[in-house]
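so i finally got all the pieces together for this one. its two components total, 604 residues if u count the protein bits. some of the lines might not be protein, just check the labels. i wanna see the whole assembly predicted at once instead of chain by chain like last time, that was a mess tbh
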Amino acid sequence: MLWLSWRQFRAQAALAFGALVIVIVALVMTRGHVVDTYSSAGDGDLTGFYVWLRLLGTALIGLPAVIGAFWGAPLLTREFEDHTHRLAWTQSVTRNRWLATKLALIGAATVVFVAVFALVFTWWSAPIDSTGNRIGTANFAQRGIVPIGYALFGLTLGALAGTILRRTIPAMAAALTGFFLVRIVVQKLVRPHLIGTEAVSTPSFGSNGLHGWIVSTRTVDAAGRTISTKAAETTLTAACDITRATADVDGALAACARRLGIHDVAQVYTSDRFWTLQVAELGLFIALTALTAAVCFWWLDNRTS
Amino acid sequence: MSAAIETSAVGKRYGRAWALRDCTLTVPPGRVVGLVGANGAGKSTLLHLAVGLLRPTEGQIAVLGRAPGDDATQLARVGFLAQDVPLYSRLSVGDHLRLGAELNPGWDERVARARIDRVGLDPSQRAGGLSGGQRAQLALAVAIGKRPELLILDEPVASLDPLARREFLADLMELAADGLSIVLSSHLLADVERVCDHLIVLAGGQVRLAGDVDQLLAAHKVLTGPRRDPDRQPADQTVIQQRHTDRQSTMLVRTKQPVLDPSWTVSDVGLEELVLAYMAAPSAATVGRAAAPRLRSVT
């Protein structure tokens, strides 16, 4: 069974890994320049070709969906469309083993492909991240190990879409849409609670000086009650006689807030928790992968026959 | 020896439509069995149930004495050629043999290879470039190579030209002579007549007629004579089909006794005529049930 899986997959695998080699070579060869740009004095800014290389991170975000659409969805739809499932599933191999072998092979290829891509890109980006913020939503999904979880989930989601819809184009569309839907829901609603943010008190109406991902901020009064920014402003302007004519309105507001005990409480993932959050989100997506695969097996066994 | 296929009130529903319902039949082993019926009669559904590609919605089905499908041992006992002969078009002839070897523990490379050689297939050629006849031969080689006890073929020759069809059927008969049980579906009655020694006629998902071809032919007679009412036929004669003109009546009857009435001209029935009569007959005319077909006049 492994032979057949490999025979059917090898052309796509060769194409994908050929492209990966080019990307890796480009990243390895250019990292020196990135280190120079960000270590010398100044803010460091990549130009020209390097800007394009940096966009590989964006490609890394889209890659799991592409794997789902091109490796996952056709896994079954190609068989259904050519009726070859009637050939494959009437040999002396149960369809469960057939699917398990296919998912294992393509899953392994997915892990290797994405892990190499993501880790090399993380290494390449390290000089940039040292001055920036890699735990924030802009960079978190294109660094570290989470892309592996995304890609495995994309793969099984594509396979499931193909199992249910039985036609390639609708299954690809469903895999793409479904994947990004889940990703967005996780990023907006789940990740902020995944390992628990820290609450940090910071002054109101001034720089909070925080590094990391500030998930939310609220303003509280001296008694610890949450108040709206507008209410805080009203209180402060009345208490300290701040008007439009005041010279430094923000400075005055900040000083007044300190005096009255009004301050901000930020919910923060600090930068040093990057890997903890990475492991947690990887675990979440591996669980989603297992769930999707289980449904795929169940459907193939109960609804396809 | 258990039946090749035995079903009991088996049914399969797709959504709201029943492809097969309340189908009870026994396919004897060691024979070449023809499963005949119009398109949509439920032939493919029945065969897919038998190879485990489908599971029945209701009722039971046993193939070689066991539930079809889910375990590898049972899968290994049944060879299957699906309708339109699905093959991996980008894989070569040799790759398909390798597929058979990899996926079947009981694979007999010598047998499969011999078939490929005999029909002159080039192992390096892609399956996508083969003719209909070559495709069928390659699929047959893969199905035979796994050394099944029962070979099931769904419309194996429908897409073949007459010459390829003749060769393919000759090969099937050779395999049957070696002791392989064969079940094939077809709506080409001439082919069925050539190779099958047992016949099952399916219509509307129901068995209309089943039996050994010799016995079926012996048990049916065509009666021609002066016009008369079929209700006046003797009780041991079941009227399957009848045609009436102003003067003459022609009836196809099933009877175990010789026809004694001297006013009838009695002649034998051809298999094609017999099958068509049962396919068209109302279901009450099925074997073993009292028949009361309506009188239809043709003037």
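Chain B touches chain A at residues 48, 51-55, 69-73, 75-76, 78-80, 82-84, 86-89, 91, 95, 98-100, 102-106, 139, 142, 146 (CB under 8 Å).
The CA atoms of residues 121 and 134 of chain B lie 7 Å apart.
anyway lmk what u think
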